[in-house]
Amino acid sequence: MAGMLLTRSGKRSEPLLKEALDRRENIPIVLGVLASIGSLELRPDLRRLSEDRDPMVAKAAREALRVLQVHEEMASSR
What we know:
It is built from five helices and no strands. By secondary structure, it is mostly helical. It is globular. The model has no long low-confidence stretch (mean pLDDT 84).
């Protein structure tokens, strides 16, 4: 539920989500929300996290990268 509210808030929720990411709190959820928002500037962090020692974090980062790629493709086709 909280993830949906953060996604609906869009870019306004980014500072809070980035803070949670820095603290490594609920990383898989945070990455999903950031990807849904379309936070393209986080791509370097996502690439780094895609090789994280925690398999759940690494998987979430790879999925977030794929979602961002879709965002980019949709934006370029407009």
